[in-house]
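Deliverable D2.4 — example input (C-alpha cells):
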C-alpha cells in the first residue's frame, strides 16, 4: 500500500481551547504538563500508551502508536484559549476541584502563566452561566474577526508552526439545522446580520477554518455539523471532527449494545440517569442545553441495534435519559443504567450498571488524542469530517451520504486502520 506523504511535525504546535478555564480543559492541560515532566502517567491516552500491529500478522510485531505514527510530541504543545471568566488556569483548576492541589502545584507556574483571552459569549445559548470576560462587537461577523486576530497573535507571539482548536466549553441550547446553515453564503450573511441562529461555537469554528486550523467539537452543539461548514472545511483543506466527547455512560452503551446485538438478545427498555455537580451539570440543568445533550445520548442505541432489521428484538425499545444537577458531587459523576433485556423464548432478564466516574479525568486524554490526531490529519492533507475519529464522540459527525458508526469496537478498528493506511501498512480485517 502506498504511503501518504505526511509533513513533518516540526516546531511548536499551538492548542487553542475554547472554555480554557473549565474542568475538562484545566484537567487536560495540567495533566499534559504533569505527564511531560514525567510526574504522572497519561492513562486513557491512545496516542501515548496504545500499540498497533505493523507488518504481517505472522510477524506479531507491535509498536506504540506514537512510535509508528509521526505525531507531534507533547513537549511541543503550547496552550492558550478563551474563557468567559478571567481566572488563570491555576485558579480555574483550583475552582474545578478535579485534580488535587498537590498535583496542580507540580505545574503551578505553567498554569498561572496561562491566562484566557476574552470569549465570545451569548447568554441566550448558555442560560445558566453569566460571563464576565467577554468580547463586544457590533456583529457576529466582527466577533469572528476578533477571534481570528486572537489566533494570529497567539501564533506569532509563541512562534508556532501549527495550531489546533478544541471546544471544551459548555453545551449550547438545542438548535435545529436551518437554511442559514446549509450554504456558505447564507452562513456568512447570517453572521453579518446577527442572526439568532448563529451560536458562539460557530463563530469560533468559522474563524478557525478561515485560518486553516483544525477544529474539534467536544460538545453536542451544531457548530460544524452542517453543510456550510463541511463545504468551508473542504475549501480551506481543514479537518473537522465531533461531536460531544464520549466518556462515561454513553461509552458503556457503545460497548453493551453491540454485546446484545451480536448475541441476538432482545431489548425492551433502557433507562439512564446521571448526577453531576460541576459547571457542565449546572449548564445541563437548563432544559434547552439538556435537549442538545439528550439528542446526542439518545442517538446511540438505535444506530447500533438497527431496529428496522431486527424488529422482534429492538423494534419497541423505551429509551430514557436523565441528567440531574447535584452540586455536592462536583466533577464526580455517577451514572445509573437499568436495562431490561430478554432471551430465549422472550424470557426477561436485567442488567444494572452503576458507573461512578470522574468526568474530566475521562475526557482529558480524549482531548490530547484528538489534538494530536487532527494535527496529523492536517499534515497528511486530510480535510472535512474525520470520521475515523468517531471513536471519541457520542454523536459522530457524518455527511448526508453516510451514516454514523457508534459501535466502539468497529470505531477502534477504523481508527487503527486509518493510521495504518497513512503510513503505507495493509489494513487488518482479522480474516485468516
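Example output (designed residues):
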Amino acid at each position: 500500500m502506498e504511503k501518504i506523504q505526511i509533513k513533518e511535525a516540526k516546531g511548536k504546535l499551538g492548542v487553542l481551547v475554547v472554555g480554557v478555564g473549565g474542568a475538562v480543559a484545566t484537567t487536560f492541560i495540567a495533566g499534559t504538563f504533569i505527564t511531560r515532566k514525567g510526574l504522572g502517567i497519561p492513562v486513557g491516552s491512545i496516542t501515548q500508551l496504545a500499540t498497533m500491529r505493523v507488518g504481517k500478522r505472522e510477524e506479531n510485531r507491535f509498536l506504540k502508536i506514537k512510535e509508528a505514527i509521526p505525531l507531534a510530541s507533547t513537549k511541543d504543545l503550547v496552550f492558550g484559549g478563551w474563557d468567559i471568566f478571567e481566572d488563570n488556569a491555576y485558579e480555574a483548576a483550583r475552582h474545578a476541584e478535579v485534580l488535587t492541589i498537590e498535583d496542580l502545584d507540580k505545574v503551578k507556574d505553567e498554569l498561572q502563566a496561562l491566562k484566557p483571552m476574552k470569549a465570545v459569549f451569548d447568554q441566550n445559548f448558555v442560560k445558566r452561566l453569566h460571563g464576565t470576560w467577554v468580547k463586544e462587537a457590533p456583529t457576529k461577523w466582527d466577533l469572528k474577526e476578533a477571534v481570528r486576530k486572537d489566533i494570529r497573535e497567539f501564533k506569532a507571539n509563541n512562534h508556532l508552526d501549527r495550531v489546533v482548536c478544541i471546544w471544551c466549553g459548555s453545551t449550547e441550547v438545542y438548535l435545529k439545522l436551518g437554511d442559514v446553515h446549509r450554504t456558505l453564503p447564507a452562513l456568512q450573511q447570517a453572521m453579518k446580520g446577527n442572526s439568532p441562529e448563529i451560536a458562539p461555537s460557530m463563530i469560533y469554528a468559522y474563524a478557525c477554518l478561515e485560518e486553516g486550523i483544525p477544529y474539534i467539537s467536544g460538545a453536542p452543539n451544531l457548530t460544524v455539523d452542517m453543510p456550510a461548514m463541511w463545504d468551508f472545511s473542504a475549501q480551506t483543506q481543514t479537518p473537522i471532527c465531533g461531536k460531544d466527547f464520549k466518556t462515561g455512560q454513553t461509552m458503556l452503551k457503545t460497548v453493551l449494545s453491540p454485546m446484545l446485538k451480536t448475541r441476538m438478545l432482545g431489548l425492551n427498555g433502557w433507562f439512564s440517569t446521571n448526577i453531576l455537580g460541576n459547571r457542565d451539570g449546572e449548564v445541563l440543568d437548563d432544559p434547552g442545553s439538556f435537549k442538545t445533550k439528550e439528542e446526542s445520548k439518545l442517538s446511540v442505541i438505535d444506530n447500533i441495534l438497527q431496529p428496522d432489521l431486527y424488529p422482534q428484538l429492538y423494534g419497541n425499545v423505551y429509551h430514557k435519559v436523565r441528567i440531574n444537577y447535584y452540586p455536592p458531587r462536583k466533577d464526580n459523576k455517577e451514572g445509573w443504567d437499568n436495562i431490561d433485556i430478554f432471551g430465549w423464548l422472550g424470557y426477561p432478564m436485567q442488567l444494572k450498571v452503576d458507573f461512578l466516574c470522574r468526568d474530566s479525568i475521562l475526557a482529558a486524554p480524549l482531548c490530547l488524542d484528538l489534538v494530536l490526531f487532527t494535527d496529523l490529519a492536517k499534515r497528511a492533507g486530510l480535510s472535512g469530517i474525520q470520521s475515523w475519529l468517531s471513536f471519541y464522540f457520542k454523536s459522530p459527525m457524518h455527511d448526508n451520504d453516510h451514516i454514523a458508526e457508534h459501535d466502539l469496537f468497529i470505531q477502534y478498528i477504523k481508527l487503527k486502520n486509518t493510521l495504518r493506511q497513512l503510513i503505507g501498512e495493509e489494513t487488518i480485517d482479522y480474516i485468516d
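The radius of gyration is 21 Å.
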